[in-house]
Amino acid sequence: MDKIEILGLIAAALTTSSFVPQVYKAWKQKSTKDISLTMYLFFFTGIVLWLIYGIAIDSLSMIIANAITIVLSFFIIAAKLKYK
Amino acid sequence: MDKIEILGLIAAALTTSSFVPQVYKAWKQKSTKDISLTMYLFFFTGIVLWLIYGIAIDSLSMIIANAITIVLSFFIIAAKLKYK
């Protein structure tokens, strides 16, 4: 695997894992007032398209990163709807 | 431009623009308590790497999308630091 692909995997790991602390904070504090629902609805839709894009270009790292991000952003949307 | 690239551009437009409502909400309400700083620091770092990756593979859409996302996530981090 060349250096550029390794860079892509590290970038994917960082941007994907970054949602974990937000999911944790939202569900632990049961407070999501400051989180923008509009952002996460747009973001979620975009990530679904990135997943389809990743499948279309047969990029395993994009498929994995976006599949995980879809699940994580779903939990943030769920927390936002539950704890207005 | 083929259908897959158009899909990528739409995905990039959605995920990039999704941060605008969060920037607006944070600065308008002057309240960021529910926003995870850890998330945005990880995310910001990841997006910088995605920008370098986009430059390395000469992908204009990745360069534009990630450059804009860097600016938008910077404003969210700034709001988080200013309005603990």
TrEMBL record, chains A, B:
Protein transport among keywords: no
Annotated TM spans: 6-27, 39-57, 63-81
Lineage top rank: taxon: Bacteria
Gene3D superfamilies, per the entry: 1.20.1280.290
Subcellular location, principal: membrane
Keyword Kinase among UniProt keywords: no
InterPro entries named among the record's database cross-references: PQ-loop_rpt, SemiSWEET
Gene Ontology annotations for the cellular component aspect, listed alphabetically: membrane
Protein name per its UniProtKB record: SemiSWEET transporter
Organism: Costertonia aggregata
Lineage: Bacteria, Pseudomonadati, Bacteroidota, Flavobacteriia, Flavobacteriales
